[in-house]
Each structure stands twice: as structure tokens, then as C-alpha cells.
Structure prediction request, 117 residues.
Amino acid sequence: MRLYPRDETTVAVDHAGVHYEPADDGGFDFPAGLSDQMHSVHVRGRAQWEDAIERQNRMITEEAARRADPATLLDAVEQLVKAARATGEAAKADAPKADAPKAAPKAAPPAKSDDGK
Prediction:
């Protein structure tokens, strides 16, 4: 069973002379007996390992709580506004200063013909 460490700092696990490395998604593929044992480990009442379903439920709950908090949402919007302003000001500073637009050249007056017209 694939288990995911809750602390997300676990980079490898050695058990009974076998070395386990995490997969690309951070999960560890343990044999059945070991995965049951690792899944049952709790420290101060907090699970140290979770399966894919528990991980997904936790991440959804955390994201929903983050989005439901108005202060967090306001802070995120303020950070976006500041970043947009900073980007806009940096773009203005980097842009070459253009001279005032030049007026179109005046057309030469029509040439007078020899007969005075």
C-alpha cells in the first residue's frame, strides 16, 4: 500500500535491511505488513502516515478552510495587488522613454503654375 508521510520531510525509510525511496508523488510503496504497521503509528495522537484517500481528504479540508477564512482571502488579494503594482512600476521603469509624438510633416503648399493660377 502506498503511504504518504504527514511531516513531508521523510526522504527515505530503512526497515529490516530494506531501503525505501519515495515515488515521484512523495508516497512510499511498502509491503502489506509494513504498510499496516507504519499506518498505525501515531505521535501525540497524530498519525504519522496516511494513505491516498486520507491525504486527499486532508488536503481538501485544509484548502476549504483556507478559502473560507476572510482574513486569509483578503491577505492573498492584497499580495496579488501589490505584486501587480510592483510589476507595473517595474515595466514602466524598464520601458524606454519615448519623446512626445511628433506631428505629421506638413504637406508642401501646391506649386504655382507659370500662368499664375
